[in-house]
Amino acid sequence: MDKDTARTIADQLTWARIWLCLPITALAWFDLKEWVVGVYIVAALTDFLDGKFARRAAPPRTDVDLDGNADLLFTVMTLVWLWMLVPGFMEKYWLYLPALVAIQIYVSTAPLRHPGIRVPHFQFGRIMMAVFCCMLPIVFIWGNQPIFVHGVFILGTVAKLQLAWYVASYEAPKALLQTPGKDDTRA
């Protein structure tokens, strides 16, 4: 398979995950938990598969981080679906949300503060995204296990802090710091 085909497949799988948020929300609205879990697992598999194809693919055609934005949407919607379907979920775990939102805003606005930055997908963040994706089915199958949910939120926050640390310690390459046509006297 050539790199352009792999890129096309990876992007189509990412778009499928984005669009699957609509039927999952409709199923959650009608309290069809089994269907939510089934379609949710399909959506989570698109995340796994798009990563497999993206690693073999040509670079993205734009600077937009489609997969990262899809992951963020899927994460937010997972919390919405848990709130819709698990009584007391948000009341019990709301404390994590302000920290996660603040960290995400800081990381998402990094390109505005640091032109040229590419926020990476660290391996720990990938693992935590997979674990986070397991939270909804596990909560439905085995019930709301606080130790598991707190663990996912704590480790997910640590993964977000890893990205924030990367952004905070980012140094622009010298080529970005130079003014065109002038010598850079900083050494």
| Named CATH architecture | Up-down Bundle
Number of helices: 9
Mean pLDDT: 88
Biggest pleated-sheet summary: none
Percent helix range: over 70%
| Helical/strand content category | mainly alpha
Overall description:
Helices cover 75% and strands 0% of the residues. The protein has 187 residues and is mainly alpha-helical. The chain has one domain (3-170): Four Helix Bundle (Hemerythrin (Met), subunit A) (Up-down Bundle), CATH 1.20.120. The longest helix is centred in the N-terminal third of the chain and has 27 residues, at 3-29. Residues 183-187 have low confidence and may be disordered.
What's the quick description here?
Helices cover 75% and strands 0% of the residues. With 187 residues, the chain is mainly α.
Q: Which key phrases capture this entry?
A:
mainly alpha, single chain, Four Helix Bundle (Hemerythrin (Met), subunit A), disordered C terminus
Produce the secondary structure layout:
Elements (H helix, E strand, L loop, with lengths): L2 H27 L3 H24 L9 H20 L3 H5 L2 H13 L1 H4 L9 H20 L3 H23 L5 H4 L10
Helix pairs in contact: 1-2, 1-3, 2-7, 3-7, 5-8, 7-8
